[in-house]
Give the backbone structure.
Amino acid sequence: MKQLMKLAAAAAAGAIASGTIVYAQASAPAPRAIVSLYHAAPGQQEALLGWFAEQDRVARAAGVAPMQLYIHTDGDSWDYMGINPVTTDAQDEAMDAAAKKMGLMSGARVPLELRKHISSHTDTYTIGPITAEQAIARLGRQ
């Protein structure tokens, strides 16, 4: 578990609790990401992987980066960890349009379909990936 958390922290560097550290104005905004841990519903691991692959095809068709997927091998109870970019409203609309064009589920039905394959999941908004040096350079004090 500790090893996984170090990996997740490194992969999505900068997940610093809101309000404890304020980021100084930087020339470019820090990249943002969503780190999600998924617990597949019993017997749904392969179906969940298929759902992820489908969502990656939709993202690529809309010009959005696909999820970075990590698969559990040992340790804590999660099955999959995904790191996705935080999308804009325009990107969300493009993904919905791409899904419709591909004959796939879109809009509010997408999370309902996901829930068929999982028993639980968590989402954490982060900045990253950035290096430790970049994070230090961005720090400001109130």
Observations:
- The first strand starts at residue 22 and ends at 23.
- The first helix runs from residue 2 to 11.
